[in-house]
Amino acid sequence: MAPPRRYLAALLALLCACTTTAPLASVAAANVPITTCRSFCGNITVDYPFALHPGCGHAGLRDLLFCINGALMLHLPSGSYRVLDVDYAYRGLTLHDPAMSDCRALDLTPAGRANGFVLEPWRESYLSPDPDNVFLLLSCRATSPLFQGFPDRHLPCRNVSGMGCGDYLGCAAWDDYYAGGGRRPSGDAAYGTGTAAGQPPECCAVPWAAIRAVNVSRLECEGYSSAYSLAPVRAEGGAAGWAYGIRVSWTLPESNRGFCGACRATGGACGHDMESHADLCLCGDWNSTSNCDSSADAARSDAADTPRAVAALRWAILASGLTSLWYYASRSNL
């Protein structure tokens, strides 16, 4: 028996309502805001080439910075360092290692509590300490790799940008160290000349380029210090006036500058593919390998085709429904 006509009319009204409202919901869901990947940690801005979110920033500096309880931290195989400053104009990071010695206090242990500064091999082309950053390796053993091949003057030890062990050994922290029973060397404690036979220098100053990895335990040292110079003028007050910390510079491929500039100029954010690590321009709900204008053209084309397809489907459903209703209505009149 065919359904009464009042049911057929209600079914027709419901069919029209569903085919009219369904496309509106799909259009609204496609509206995704564009993200910039720019963020903050405490009072420090985190922007390209760095990032705190996966896929943002340059791939060579990925998985590097983390915001922990409002403190920006840099993680490397050698340990975690507090980021004190990010200088985007001069491409420099200033880091602090809590286990590092300075002019006020020495942190020396037989096993070397501080790890120093070690980079992953694949990251070395993007990140490295400044040429004007000096690493002062303290209380190293005579068997240290630092001194192998240089039995007389220990040639790796030298001043860096006017900073060296000669001044550093004049810090008040050494007086406290010697007063507490620390070994007081004879002769030139900075470079090893005139010391007792087989006795290494108390301090060895080296630039990053000389050793490429400051691994305190592997170098058989008891600790280290690090200082940097941002000006060619010698600091007043000797080592007490130095800026202590690790100054690190970053470098990106020249081709990346043009890519990122074009991406930002079209409203995108510079990022990378998390699998291939290739450059990507993040444009909100789509990504581009060039800029957001090229992707937007394709997106607008797809967006223009979508309403037509939805409208065709809606009318097909409506036509099918009307045909069925006409069929039942005609049968009810028989």
UniProtKB/TrEMBL annotation:
Q: Which residue range or ranges hold the Wall-associated receptor kinase galacturonan-binding domain?
A: 37-96
Instruction: Provide the membrane topology annotation.
Output: Single-pass membrane protein
Keyword line: Signal
Entry annotated with the keyword Signal: yes
Q: List the Pfam families.
A: GUB_WAK_bind
Please list the GO terms describing molecular function.
polysaccharide binding
Which PROSITE patterns does this chain map to? PROKAR_LIPOPROTEIN
Where mainly located?
membrane
Q: Where is the signal peptide?
A: 1-29
Cellular component (GO) terms are: membrane
Q: State whether keyword Signal applies.
A: yes
Record's subcellular location: Membrane
- Per its record, how is this protein called by name? Wall-associated receptor kinase galacturonan-binding domain-containing protein
Source species of the chain: Miscanthus lutarioriparius
